[in-house]
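ok trying again, last paste got cut off:
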Amino acid sequence: MIFMSYSIQVLTDGSYQVVFEDEPNYCRALAMAPTEMEPELEKEVWLILLFAIWSVPDRTSIEEALSAAKKLNGRFNLGVRPFDNHKENKGWCKQIKEQWGSPIWLVIRKGTLVEEIVGLRNRSQIIDLLKKWL
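nice, full thing came through this time. structure:
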């Protein structure tokens, strides 16, 4: 039996949110479609997983991201943010280039986007992505 340590909930305004249960504090659920970058993303190294709410493969990426974060035991912060339309991502990170694909993986270092890749990744690939930024 597989236990998922998160749920995806629909809010009254029609937006979505991720809710983590029993995850370390370096794994954070981020709000959908904010208008500016959260202050905490301006500190340290963050891996942000942007997943399309309507994509089942994107949703499975959450487990891979959590697994990578735990393997590296907090050497980076993980943020998971749902989106419905790619335009939503430009509100908080103007440098994002991707307009069609998903999931989108962003490495943010002290508030600056330093890497952006698109597509499904496994735990090893995620760790390899982060190694050069840690």
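cool. Helices lie at 56-71, 87-90, 123-131. The radius of gyration is 14 Å.
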